[in-house]
């Protein structure tokens, strides 16, 4: 019988196709209807009626249609082998049973078709032919049918039988789910646990096929996992009295537990993590409204189980990545198992809390393991978006580990990250095999990854924990050396190194920060730095690597010494640049004061060195050691001097941020002055510095800032030094000031002498001489404003009668009276006739500053459209044109500006005269005057803008005639003006286009002067640049000729500048043609209104 049944099944499998099974599934899913108007009947009865009618229709097909006979035999065969009852009083379970049977039939059929599939050999002559498709492949419409069937199976066969709190209730998902929850009859046999077990078992059986498994787990993994959790781990209320009362056997529960772990290992791990988090649920929810539905919290056994399973996911290879992906991929609004996860700020905060939980859980589970590479791997994702998300997790892990377990963080996290930098420290032990010159000590990839990881942990994390700061402190010297190397070339590590150094210097204690800066500058040899045998080199991929230096030969000692000195000098320069970013925090000021104190120590050491007796009775070794110390001392002194000079040059006035630094600065200056007096080495510089520092104290005491009692206590630190200066300094003025400052500080400003106020005012005047000069000018202007009007009028009338015979020996109006009144700013409409006459007379003054100021004032009045000035346009034009002949640059440039502004107001009156003057020969005007008029015309063309088309004809003809002038400078000027004009004419250039082109071609090819040929090519550049995309229309007829001319210049022109202009023009032309042939794609929507 068994053999006969197997043979029959084989025959059925051979003849039954996928289309018949999918047709049966579609029949089960056929929608129904009802003519009743009651909503309650529609929700419940219609569903039951539809399920019954679909089941009856399927049975009728099996009984009456001969084409369905084979499928019926297969279904009956599988049903007989099944271990559950298909006959039940509950319609929903009967429907689910039939659907499960058809899914099993579909799986068996697909397996049989795949086994029997034997594709023919491909024809090598037709490589374009596609390979034969496997017969078990489902089309897109068939996949949709299967997905709909699976949704019904899960909704009717799994979700209704989950206990409250396990999974997301089906009533919370859709309105249909609420209806299903009401129509399922739980009292009918088989029992609810048995139904759930059968559904999950069959679905897992169907999922063994790869295609069907992907459809099942992609959408319904969470519900199946919830069912298996309940079947395998849900505690029973009591033990059954006999085997008949037992719902599930222990073997079945064990099989459910095993199936749960199998599918968790099988599916995409982020999906498993996400579904376990959903099953685990969150904290209890409170009902805030009457209509708000509150979901039941997951039971305790399920929360513990999900936590254990999540921990197992975390412990797997790449488990942390899977957990993080599972959380982050569900952070947006999306549908998960039919539940819509809303992307809100609250939901995002929940994801962040889950991330923090994952990090803490990972630390608890993995802190005692031997490797932490999984944390470091989170930093190194290539995808930018994913990399940023994982970087946040890795940074949080670093910070959490450093805060909770600093020893483990230093050993397993920070030490591997900083290993490339520790490898090249001067305190590191380099093996002999690595001492070979040229050996790569740190590769390009290692160094780049190290710097990027340090930046992410320290700067991005921004948590100045002790273990983090202490771990990075020893390698700051190497980081600074790397920063200096990146300043000599283009490197992506430069900004990272700078940010890391600034972060560390800002977070370190001030004493440690100063020590580190001394190490950077070379003042403190005890600070770890780059090994003397190591140096940086540019790598092949654009990065940097660290290698062992080549051995220095005797012939290269001078070169090595030069490299050493230049390297130290560059390091000082780069240190000054780095400190320029540290002024606000006060670190730059403290380091500057340290350098000043070093200068004082240098003065003391020089005095002691002079008193040292020669070693007449010492050995040669001791003498050599002494000389070595002297050389090192001199190197240190030179370094301090250079560092002080760089800081004085780079730092701004805001280098001192508090009164303590100011007092320290003054104290250092006083100490240096006292040290200079001790060995009688006073100099002018020392005296000026001392006066400046004491004046600074006088400014503070004079009321520039409001001093508190605590600040006076700080100032009292200067009392001993001031007393010493007052007793020993030879200058009596400084002695008196030191005594007065002591008195003022001791009395907290209650008593202050006049000397203190005078010193404060003197210091302020030195600091801002411009402000003092302006005040003096204002005072003088006010004093001269009292001159009688009659006297001024008398002098003005005398000047008017002798206007044409002014001589330098007879100035008629005092300069002190005229100049301030001319340079005073006037508002529009506020000038008087007297002021205008005064300005006109000053325009003929023999003194150059007075005349230039008058011309500038007249130009400003024209620009402001002063009516009184515009009424005298002819006289103003005459004045400006006469001043064009002046030799002084300031005078004739002011006149050029005035004529250009006047032409902008009255172009129709002034422009023809200027063109005639520009077009005249050498016998009428000098070449210099014609060049100045050309400059005026260029400014007029620029000022007129689009209105220049009104004067196109006279301008173009004048410039074209000027291009044939015998004077080469005039030809170049005409061509330059022609370029400015053509750049603004656009389509108005059409009628004279051929004339302009012929002129440019002739000049560029035949003119003997280089400047003229350059100007001709430059006109083409301006023309193409001004027309831009309109060049293809305006220059359509001559574009080819211009192109040939440019190519001719590039190939045959001997002048490099002309070649450069031609190349620029070709690039402009190339860009224009590219945009013309391949216009940029614009994403735009067009709305058309149909008639």
UniProtKB/TrEMBL annotation:
GO terms of biological process kind: protein secretion
Gene3D superfamilies xref list: Leucine-rich Repeat Variant
Domain RNA polymerase II assembly factor Rtp1 C-terminal as annotated: residue spans: 836-947, 1039-1071
One Pfam family it belongs to: RTP1_C1
Chain ranges of the TANGO6 N-terminal domain: 16-313
Disordered, as annotated region: 761-786, 792-811
Protein name: Transport and Golgi organization protein 6 homolog isoform X2
The species this protein was found in: Physeter macrocephalus (Sperm whale)
